[in-house]
Specification:
The protein contains ten helices and no strands. The chain is an all-alpha fold. The termini are far apart.
Length: about 230
């Protein structure tokens, strides 16, 4: 009778093995969503370039001076419902179409990003001035009728964070799609509306994008496996 001697991995070898597996999973996740993350990278480079070459106040003034009645009415939509209503609607849709486990995973991703935003707004950077108060007495902004202008807790943008959190989650939920970049463009459009409505500075929007993408990607990666997802079978 042949006896096979199987050596048990040492703790160090097991740690290396697990690390390699996790690294492989993350690379696979990024590779399957290369179109989305490429679009995010481009947006990040564009945003960083604007921030490095312009003061946030100058960007706000420039955006505020480029307007149209059509955009006024269109962009007002993003002010309705807020981030909770927007994220909640997506979660309900996911529960209906994908089941409660996927909906719960989305809830954890969105709520985590939102908590980081609230912590920064009210603990790290409390009272950060929004454009309408920042420019008071120095520059008269063109404000849109019907839009309630908030005055403080500007940094970072909760709407932009929520938009990129949702966009990232949907991209990861539907791997390998070439049109993933549209999710990034849609989320960036929400960020632009926050500038257009004079509710935020570009620094707020840029940081919100980074929080939404990074938080959702990491939580999606580390979250316990939820099994097969219906959309992936199609």
């Amino acid at each position: 009778m042949m006896i096979i001697n199987q050596e048990k991995e040492t703790p160090r070898e097991e740690e290396i093995h697990n690390s390699n597996m996790q690294s492989g999973i993350m690379k696979s996740l990024l590779r399957e969503n290369v179109y989305y993350y490429t679009a995010v990278l481009i947006l990040t480079l564009l945003g960083a370039t604007v921030l490095l070459t312009n003061h946030k106040a100058d960007v706000t003034i420039w955006v505020n001076s480029h307007y149209s009645p059509f955009m006024d009415q269109l962009f007002k939509i993003t002010d309705y419902g807020g981030t909770i209503g927007f994220s909640g609607a997506i979660i309900i849709l996911l529960i209906i179409t994908q089941g409660p486990r996927v909906g719960l995973k989305a809830l954890v991703c969105f709520a985590s990003a939102a908590l980081i935003v609230q912590f920064l707004k009210y603990v790290v950077f409390p009272g950060e001035l929004r454009p309408v108060l920042y420019f008071e007495g120095s520059h008269e902004l063109r404000l849109i009728e019907g839009v309630t202008q908030l005055q403080t807790e500007s940094f970072p943008s909760g709407h932009t964070t929520a938009a990129f959190s949702v966009a990232t989650f949907l991209a990861l939920l539907l791997p390998g799609k070439k049109w993933h970049w549209l999710f990034a463009i849609a989320a960036a459009s929400v960020g632009y509306t926050r500038l257009y409505l004079s509710q935020h500075f570009i620094t707020d929007v840029f940081t919100g994008m980074l929080i939404g993408v990074t938080t959702t990607t990491l939580i999606y990666y580390f979250y316990p496996d939820q099994g097969d997802i219906k959309w992936r079978k199609n």
